[in-house]
Amino acid sequence: MGQKGEETRNRLLDATQELIEGGGYSGAGLNQVIAASGTPRGSLYFHFPGGKDQMVAESVRRGGREIGRAVEELAEAVPDTASLAVAVLTLLGDRLEASGWRKGCPVATVALEMAATSDPLQEVCSEVYGSWEGMLRDRLAADGHPEAGDVAVTVLALIEGALLLARAHRSREPLDRVARRIVTLL
Amino acid sequence: MGQKGEETRNRLLDATQELIEGGGYSGAGLNQVIAASGTPRGSLYFHFPGGKDQMVAESVRRGGREIGRAVEELAEAVPDTASLAVAVLTLLGDRLEASGWRKGCPVATVALEMAATSDPLQEVCSEVYGSWEGMLRDRLAADGHPEAGDVAVTVLALIEGALLLARAHRSREPLDRVARRIVTLL
DNA sequence: ACCTCATAATAGATCGGTCTACATATTAAA
DNA sequence: TTTAATATGTAGACCGATCTATTATGAGGT
Question: Residue limits of the HTH tetR-type domain (chains A, B) (predicted)?
Fold first, then answer.
């Protein structure tokens, strides 16, 4: 793949991610993706012969990797898992508020929309969440925490839930409340 | 409104709720709603002159009330808030698994899809979540729990997050793990 | 006769997807 | 080094299906 092709492909994925975060799978209409990315329809099906589902799947995976990397960076700058959780809540809260309550979790909306109807997309979402759970579990186990598996899933659920409530209320309050309380969990 | 009209209206709301739980706002196409409910298209616009958004809004509110009532019933049969939370997780887990991982939270998908684009629907979702938070807060305060506000939001976030992960993984595991850990929060 | 409600035909927009034509590189042969 | 052949992308018209919404008409109960 030449450099030009790579650029076009990335512009498509950028636009898809952006639109997905705002309104999920159905919020990322191909017409919108094309308009936002400035690439013609034909290029889309050249780079993603599997059509919309393939492009969305790659976008979700990409969004998941980006968050994963950001969390790993935070993890190195912080003493324990409790402060990591708070730092993640702050980071995601900033991102959410700065985007006008549009950019929450890049996986959640697609997961809820498509988990029941599309096996491939359900698998992608499950895989991304699984990788995040793994990161948290390893970190907790390294801290010598017992029940690391249960706690990792609980922390992830808490963050995802807080993000959902924050979007629904268009307010940081749920994130702040959870941040205050998450310490007792660890 | 006569009895016949009431029935039609309820059949429409039933179908809308069912479809929304499976795939959110966009998963509830009007063609599917009228096919599932057996009512003609025109009746829909007679009972919901505001169109799809009005019908979805009422469905979400209705779904929220149903869950709210179920939780209130559980609350009477249980000693403290910790066991209430576990009971709710079990109830929702049963519902989710029995529906083939389709019926999770009747609000979450619409909230994530529409919170950024539709003010009226965002308000409805915020209102339903607010009422659930209120129920939990009152219950916690009655137990004499300090920080009832923060804890109520945290418990709700935890349940919503666990439900999201369970749908994404098509597995009860996240619900079970959270149920085991939620006690330490209370 | 009046209001409530049911019914179906249809409009107009938008959906994801396919198709063909064209431009630009890259490689191979002369 | 020029030319031919092939691979890589770009570009947009077009398709059938589906979307939400509107309309006109008439049945049914009070």
Answer: 6-66
Q: At what angle do helices B51-76 and B3-27 cross, to 10 degrees?
A: 100
| A4-13, B76-85, B177-186: least confident range | A4-13
* Mean pLDDT computed over every residue of chain B: 95
CB contacts < 8 A, A to B, total 174
Domain spans of chain A, in order of start: 57-185
Query: Which whole-number Å values give the CA distances from A154 to A79, B129, B166, in the listed order?
Result: 20, 20, 12
Q: What is the pLDDT of residue A168?
A: 98
* Contact partners, residue B10, CB within 8 Å, separation at least 6: none
pLDDT digits 0-9 by tens, B56-85: 999 999 999 999 999 999 999 999 999 999
Domain B57-185, CATH homologous superfamily name and number: Tetracycline Repressor, domain 2 (1.10.357.10)
Given a cut of 80, whether residue A2 has pLDDT beyond it is: no
Q: Which of B131, B157, B70 is nearest to A108 (CA)?
A: B157
| Residue of B26, B100, B153 lying closest to A26 (CB–CB) | B26
CB contact under 8 A, B153 and A177: yes
The structure tokens listed for A56 are 């969305």
Which residue of chain A comes nearest to B29, CA vs CA? A26
Interface of B with A in 31-70 (CB under 8 A): none
